[in-house]
Amino acid sequence: MSLPVLKAADFASDQDVRWCPGCGDYSILAQMKKVLPELGVPREKIVFVSGIGCSSRFPYYMNTYGMHSIHGRAPTFATGLKSTRPDLMVWVITGDGDALSIGGNHFIHVLRRNLDINIVLFNNRIYGLTKGQYSPTSTEGQVTKSTPMGSIDHPLSPLSVALAAEATFVARSLDAHVKHLGAVLKRASEHKGTSLVEVYQNCNVFNDGAMAYAQEKKQRADNVVELEHGKPLVFGKNNEKAIRLVGTHLEIVERSEVPDDDLLIHDEKDPNPSIQMMLARMRYPEMPEPIGVLRDVDNVATYDEQINAQVELAKETRGEGDLDKLFHAGDTWVVD
Amino acid sequence: MSLPVLKAADFASDQDVRWCPGCGDYSILAQMKKVLPELGVPREKIVFVSGIGCSSRFPYYMNTYGMHSIHGRAPTFATGLKSTRPDLMVWVITGDGDALSIGGNHFIHVLRRNLDINIVLFNNRIYGLTKGQYSPTSTEGQVTKSTPMGSIDHPLSPLSVALAAEATFVARSLDAHVKHLGAVLKRASEHKGTSLVEVYQNCNVFNDGAMAYAQEKKQRADNVVELEHGKPLVFGKNNEKAIRLVGTHLEIVERSEVPDDDLLIHDEKDPNPSIQMMLARMRYPEMPEPIGVLRDVDNVATYDEQINAQVELAKETRGEGDLDKLFHAGDTWVVD
Amino acid sequence: MTTRKIQFMTTTKHVKSVSGITVRLAGDSGDGMQLLGTQLTNTSALAGNDVATFPDFPAEIRAPRGTRAGVSGFQVQFAKEEIFTPGDTLDALVVMNPAALVTNVQDLRKGGILIANEDGFTEKDFKLAKVEANPLEATVINDSYRLIKVPMTQLTRAAVSEHGLSPKIADRCKNFFAMGLVYWLFGRSLDPTLRFIENKFGKKPDVAAANVAALRAGWAFGETTEAFGESYQVEAAELTPGTYRNMMGNQALAWGLVAASKLSGKELFYGTYPITPASDILHELTKHKNFGVRTFQAEDEISAMCATIGAAFGGTMAVTASSGPGIALKAEAMGLGMMLELPMVVVNVQRGGPSTGLPTKTEQSDLLQALFGRNGESPIPVIAPQSPADCFNTAIEAWRIATECMVPVMLLSDGYIANGSEPWKIPTIDTLPKIEIKHPVDNNDGEPFLPYLRNENLGRPWAIPGTEGLMHRVGGLEKEHETGNVSYDPANHQLMTETRAAKVAKIAERIPEQEVFGEPSGDLLVVSWGGTYGACLTAVRRCQQAGHRVSHAHLRYLNPFPRNLGELLKSFDRVLVPELNMGQLRMLLRSEFLVDCIGYNKVQGKPFAVSELIQQIETHVPSPVAV
Amino acid sequence: MTTRKIQFMTTTKHVKSVSGITVRLAGDSGDGMQLLGTQLTNTSALAGNDVATFPDFPAEIRAPRGTRAGVSGFQVQFAKEEIFTPGDTLDALVVMNPAALVTNVQDLRKGGILIANEDGFTEKDFKLAKVEANPLEATVINDSYRLIKVPMTQLTRAAVSEHGLSPKIADRCKNFFAMGLVYWLFGRSLDPTLRFIENKFGKKPDVAAANVAALRAGWAFGETTEAFGESYQVEAAELTPGTYRNMMGNQALAWGLVAASKLSGKELFYGTYPITPASDILHELTKHKNFGVRTFQAEDEISAMCATIGAAFGGTMAVTASSGPGIALKAEAMGLGMMLELPMVVVNVQRGGPSTGLPTKTEQSDLLQALFGRNGESPIPVIAPQSPADCFNTAIEAWRIATECMVPVMLLSDGYIANGSEPWKIPTIDTLPKIEIKHPVDNNDGEPFLPYLRNENLGRPWAIPGTEGLMHRVGGLEKEHETGNVSYDPANHQLMTETRAAKVAKIAERIPEQEVFGEPSGDLLVVSWGGTYGACLTAVRRCQQAGHRVSHAHLRYLNPFPRNLGELLKSFDRVLVPELNMGQLRMLLRSEFLVDCIGYNKVQGKPFAVSELIQQIETHVPSPVAV
Ligand SMILES: Cc1ncc(C[n+]2csc(CCOP(=O)(O)OP(=O)(O)O)c2C)c(N)n1
Ligand SMILES: Cc1ncc(C[n+]2csc(CCOP(=O)(O)OP(=O)(O)O)c2C)c(N)n1
Ligand code: SF4
Ligand code: SF4
Ligand SMILES: [Mg+2]
Ligand SMILES: [Mg+2]
């Protein structure tokens, strides 16, 4: 059966998009609408689940099934949904506050269970919807409405936390780098198991330019390294710099000074996440920050697969449940 | 001023201890009572805060201040307490379910904030108090009351998660290895910042022997490696085996076959946690499991220190708050 | 399956026929009292008696041996008449140690039989139980009760050593000795327990043999010793014909959910987080994966609630359960479930509150939380089972209401019902009410789909993902009437708020009118709900027999109330509302009907005794008229 | 500080004296309407008027420009008499675009002044606002109102270019043009706003200059154009002598907490998680670290609540705040706080519910949640402020009750109060009530310390860590009377449950009796609580003036109720309870006093209009008697 060919516009719902003009969310929405038609999944088989935050209004703008839920809990709704409806493609849309502050626990647990869903985490390092308090990804010393003397919390890295939970797909992209973003979203959708995509997203109202070092084209070459499986980690305007592993530390080298064979080769398939964890810890300004797929490991059983497999196995071995048999099993007696 | 010299018994409250006979919790309690007098902190300056679980009854048995709170939230009570009362020594007592299931988020956040408290996580890989359901640290396939066909969740490693949250002190010990346990608890108490001590604890009623490979003296030598700062990782009955780092992977080697210089030397002070993360991922039966201090990094500011420093700074720069001045600042007018 | 004609073991002693017996077995939590109680219950049920049980666990998993905190009790009443409670005062009490004696003997009626395991009364045991001297020697004990001291440990050892088994094994099976003795005393057949031993210990033949030997030795002791002059016999009750089994409340609830799933053609998703006393529902349900049951042990109650909503959105029968503190955690998400108007069942097996409270004890103090424990105007239906077996029907009814109205339904069970048991007449499957669910199908007529269009019950269509053309978005922001789009329109908010309230209120049109046990008017109406049914009914019945003009109305529906309830209340001079809380139903009744209901409130972690209810009733009614 | 004598700018036109003006400023959320409103409010307050405001934000941070969803409004009433609401119908409306016009004009009284920024009414703007044609040309608009079209953008550009500034800067300051015009119209001084510009834009002199130019141009436009025949003047109100400032509710609440901390000699710990409309309390408090204020932005509301309890255990003044969904999340931990009997304040700034609801709108629908939103019997005191400035006193009172009774106190504010503002008479510090707190000190007499021994208020000692000899353990399991040890004793549970209830009930002995505005008996008593105070009072006052026998009782104490409340209710023929919910206080009153209270319930995310209340009152009272 050939599916009708859909266009990006077919994925737009009839609701007015209500983000601030200039918000990075628009770009992510656009890329999502562009990528989905390429997947060949009918719209009615797709569900977007979100929490609360600017980013979490996303489902309203997609002409698919959707649930704008409560703050921080999107992964849990997705768990109930996907466990019972493995036929659906489920996307979770979340923000840095939603996923890592109130929702940090569900975030870890869905990743460790490896539920077959895709999580897109819009990281603007601020609480947008509540008008500008700091978030778990805000930098130390950041002055916001709730930290007039500067934040004293050490920021969390969603990628590190995900890897510690043994996530099977971990990636990062930028709202400003639309091609890259589209490609990463597509990769995420293709992964079996939980995919996490962190997207650096500019909140031009409350945290404008927080990630300009990565987002702005001019600065990007020096501050960002684009990961490619099997390729060395090179960056710089003329690809003149690279990353080398020395012992258990990563360091920046000039390519002119180091033979190519000494450079770190990216292996997103390595089942041992050690090196991927080191990548996740690379932080501007000391290091360039990696974008692309850090990890993509495929042979881990998914939660939905297994919960359903146990049901199938039980039915096979014990026969489809029969109420009458259940009720009469064990000690009974007859009154007549 | 010389403090009265206290004995272990002085730290016992008047309440009957009510764990199952044979429970590993007794040993941890005994070690705690042994270690505390060595610290020279008066009993009234010590507070034990716990969640809910068998392990969390701990505070009732200590003749200090204590709070048996609600499930999973102990770190948050400790945060309010220690932030306002930095003069107190605060211990958090928690279980694998308490800390990692319902309490996973607070666990991460207290660690990233580096509040100056000590967390002791009793890991028996089971829910004891609710009589035997699986926990986030239960092994895959484990059969429990709630998983008659075997658990399908991939277990969490508290040490990995802690390191991903950039914890500054991370250690592990065994209830059965009392000397080691005492020493580790002491080390934890001496650390400035959040200390996490995972203790393998035997629940002889619902998960007896789950960690026998590490707990039983006979098996321990082959399955456990005791970390010592600056020393190579050696293990085996005759210390005949060791760990070597190859690229970004750890492997077991026969010491007879490898020069000592090639062995991995443990560095708990390395600010870069990469290698410590690799240690945290060593799992029986593939690898021996590390016990001792994985990480102890001291120069990270603590939350309580900083929240109070901001208050002090504000008082210094703006003067101790004056209500009258506050009320009259800005536009006011007089009606007469 | 067995028929109810059971051969009584042949005793040579005198057999006294009695109408019912209440017995409590009490010992250390390591002594196997719960097993003993369950066996006695099943055996009595198989003997055709009506039975009702009340297990009472210690709070600790294994509190220190021999202490008062470690005492585990199991009470059972079996009778030849229909009974509704496990009994107030005990006819017989079996105690394995001093702690069990001192914590239980006050419930034994004067002259009742007190059987004590003499071997459990050593100096060490007195210390553990914090008693000064041997209570078995206390005059007050010897004067008040028929004390029979049995050296159970020794006798069991002897019985077992005959078969060449070690004393260590023997000590573990002294509960079977006690069981044998109790069976002799009440003329019970050993067969069901022999079968049980066979099933349970078949793989360990020496243990099985020891238990059998102990059991028979206990019976023989009763038959032989002079301490017992006679045994008692309770004839079979006149129950409605049918096939019966013994059911515990949590099991009945689990089975009811499974049945509801079958009856509605839906597979069941059960998302939960362990908590006493709700966990056993999980343990039971997860055994039935072959019914298409998926159980999800979530990371916490919030996750459990949300996963339940997620599953409901996907079109599955979705259920969650917890107890007080866990229900509190579900509050925010429950509000979302209400706003999304998706069907689901939320079970609260209530326990002693507030906060962590008394986790292993019973209470009815979460009724107002069920009604009002969410932010904003957030009405949901609330229903409550009245007895262990009734949990089965209530579970089905909860799912029926949920699907008819597209709303989360709260089912309020409690620890007393959950752990208690009674005979359950097994229903014929096709007499169970079908639950019809219709999902809207493809919408190809080009009209925009209206996810919040309402039917005659004010329910909305349950359109599920995967259905072409019905794509829509739901969420917790106020939604526009019919379209379900986000709306900040003031009038719409009023409309939607009123509609959600009306939807729940309208349920009253479809549920049965409130029934009354007794006359429809009179001096006093006793109004109760939930697990206090049996005690209230029994008390009212006795008062009626004593000539009082008192009736009983037991509410299954707590929100909305049955439509005739107001009138009913006003037909009585007084209304008494006994509750295991500080007056929560009373407050609702007063507010709704402006009737000056009187409360009788007990918060002791224990069910009502029939006697205390009778006393209460009597203080509120005139002396009986001669009838 | 300024004195209230303000020089009116010298207008050459006719000045009409009026007793009060209600004006609303409405435009796109990017148009700076909130700033404009705040300035007009402050200026009017400085002019000695009584003022009351009602800002109304869009739900989105920056909804799409020009759309109806993006309209931001600010309403202010200023008057020469004491006023209690921001006014019902508008005397004047300023609109910056068609969306603002169509969403607001229905509130303008017939014949009212409608000022429109003509330059904001282009074809593009019509499309964005989804209007067919130019509404400024609609007959109904022109016939009903005194429409004055002002090309604000052009005029601002012109004003600004004179000073050599770019049109881009100009466009950003057209709100100051509008402000100048409004100031002219109502005879307001430019001085306070000139000062404000100086302070705010001092560092960007060109922006400051542009704003000043625009402001003056607006004033000049009013003075010059023929469109305005006269301006209006509202004389200073007769307020109690003293120094005043304008206060918003959340600010007053924050300051009240700071004051309570000073008054009790405690530093303040504020644990919270951001949520609309409570976040501004955090933003305000965190500015005052020099008062020893520690703010903790937690990872979620549960953490915020628990950290608050932790701080309270440590002996600090501990407070948390949130709104509906966040309060739901705090439920479990709040129950623990109640069980631990530690003093703390929990603030709920209520918003439109249920679930996520209408976050930027106001409602009073969390009252029952405050009372019953926890598992088990979990009584806590509940109080509510009546107006923005009253938040100050209520915060102090909450902390006073908390420390007297050792109990968490719930303070129920709402979005309307939180964002509204009114003049606040600055108190002299030493007239504020001291709050005395005594911590037990070293216990060297050898007697065991009793952490649950009670004083005359039934409060327990607040013994804090660090105190020698008073070591004790608290927790959520039921505690033994006096010792505080874990206890499963049935009678103890009853005792403790009753004691916790009695402790809260006893507060009624110490709080003032309920006051009545009007006669102590009559045809109708209007009972209200929280933010509806102003509207209810104004309505009752007008009805009294019209000769109706109606009085008003506004409750600050919702749990327990004032001790004379029942009698009061019974002194009136009827009781009307207007609430911005479905009847939550009404339900409590009915239940407690068995009085058939009538509800008037509005859930539209908006406050009551005085007119609708008057209408309601009139339907419930006989026609006025000639007086
Ligand atoms: C239970 C609860 N607590 C708090 C809020 C208020 N709230 C809404 S979104 C949000 C944080 C938003 O930050 P983030 O997740 O980073 O999303 P963004 O708006 O930046 O996209 C908060 C605190 C809420 N809606 N519900
Ligand atoms: C909110 C809430 N949910 C659930 C429970 C029930 N509960 C008590 S302890 C516990 C888990 C105990 O496991 P763990 O933390 O590993 O401690 P352990 O008993 O094994 O020491 C659970 C689920 C509770 N008390 N409160
Ligand atoms: S507040 Fe920030 S994140 Fe939110 S819509 Fe506006 S720009 Fe985007
Ligand atoms: S159940 Fe397990 S963990 Fe709990 S006290 Fe008993 S042995 Fe220890
Ligand atoms: Mg954000
Ligand atoms: Mg455990």
**Which bin fits the share of residues in helices of chain C?**
25-40%
Number of helices of chain C: 21
Task: Tell me the series of helices and strands of chain A, N- to C-terminal.
Answer: HEEHEHHEHEHEHHEEEEHEHHE
Q: Say what the CATH topology of the largest domain in chain C is.
A: Pyruvate-ferredoxin Oxidoreductase, domain 3
Number of helices of chain A: 11
Taking strands numbered 1, 2, ... along the chain, how are they ordered across the largest sheet of chain A?
Answer: 2-1-3-4-6-5-11-7
CATH architecture of the largest domain in chain A: 3-Layer(aba) Sandwich
Strand fraction of chain C = 15-25%
Structure description:
The complex is a heterotetramer, with two copies of chain A (336 residues) and two copies of chain C (627 residues). Chain A has 336 residues and is of the alpha/beta class. Chain A folds into two domains: 1-210 and 301-336, Rossmann fold (3-Layer(aba) Sandwich); 220-286, no CATH class. Chain A has helices at 25-39, 74-84, 96-102, 104-113, 158-164, 178-190, 212-215, 217-223, 274-280, 303-318, 323-328, and strands spanning 46-50, 65-68, 89-95, 118-123, 169-174, 195-200, 224-226, 234-235, 241-246, 249-254, 289-296, 333-335. In chain A, helix 2 packs parallel to helix 10 (303-318). By secondary structure, chain C is α/β, with parallel strands linked by helices. Chain C folds into four domains: 14-234, Pyruvate-ferredoxin oxidoreductase, PFOR, domain III (Pyruvate-ferredoxin Oxidoreductase, domain 3); 245-430, Rossmann fold, CATH 3.40.50.970; 438-510, no CATH class; 522-620, Rossmann fold (3-Layer(aba) Sandwich). Chain C contains 21 helices and 23 strands. In chain C, the strands form five sheets. Chain C has a seven-stranded mixed sheet with strand order 12-11-13-14-16-15-21, sandwiched between helices. A six-stranded mixed sheet of chain C has the order 4-5-3-6-7-8, with helices on both faces. Chain C has a four-stranded parallel sheet with strand order 20-19-22-23, with helices on both faces. In chain C, strand 13, helix 13 (324-340) and strand 14 (344-350) form a beta-alpha-beta unit. In chain C, helix 1 packs across helix 8 (191-201) and helix 18 crosses helix 21. Chain C is globular, with a radius of gyration of 27 Å. Chains in contact: A-B, A-C, A-D, B-C, B-D, C-D. At the B-D interface, strand 1, strand 2, helix 2, helix 4 and helix 10 of B face strand 1, helix 1, strand 10, helix 10 and strand 12 of D. Strand 2 (65-68) of chain B pairs parallel with strand 18 (473-475) of chain D, so a sheet runs across the interface. Bound molecules: thiamine diphosphate (2 copies), iron/sulfur cluster (SF4) (2 copies) and magnesium ion (2 copies).
